[in-house]
Write a structure and sequence with these properties.
Strand content: under 5%
Mean pLDDT: 81
Structural class: mainly alpha
Number of strands: 0
Radius of gyration: 24 Å
Low-confidence stretches: none
Helix content: 40-55%
Number of helices: 4
Distance between the termini: 82 Å
Shape: elongated
Order of helices and strands: HHHH
Largest sheet: none
Oligomer: single chain
């Protein structure tokens, strides 16, 4: 009986991991309908583990300002050696 419960939890592991995501229903349905295939289970697992947050990339314009390669700050003036 314990092994049957363990296998059921292992089978629905992607649905358990992705239950609080916005795509939780899709993950559950993919796991339920195609989880018996290894490919369907792996896709559901990767979908459940993937980050749901968008990543934003910030670009710094270097146009009129200077970029210091020492400190990495835009706008820092390079030092001149005398």
């Amino acid at each position: 009986m314990f092994s049957l419960l363990f296998l059921a939890l292992l089978y629905f592991l992607p649905a358990i991991i992705g239950r609080n995501k916005t795509d939780g229903t899709g993950i559950f349905l993919l796991n339920l309908l195609l989880g018996w295939t290894l490919v369907g289970w792996v896709v559901a697992f990767l979908w459940a583990c993937a980050s749901g947050r968008p990543t934003y990339v910030h670009y710094a314009t270097i146009g009129a300002s200077h970029f210091s390669s020492r400190c990495g700050i835009v706008g820092a003036r390079p030092r001149t050696l005398l």
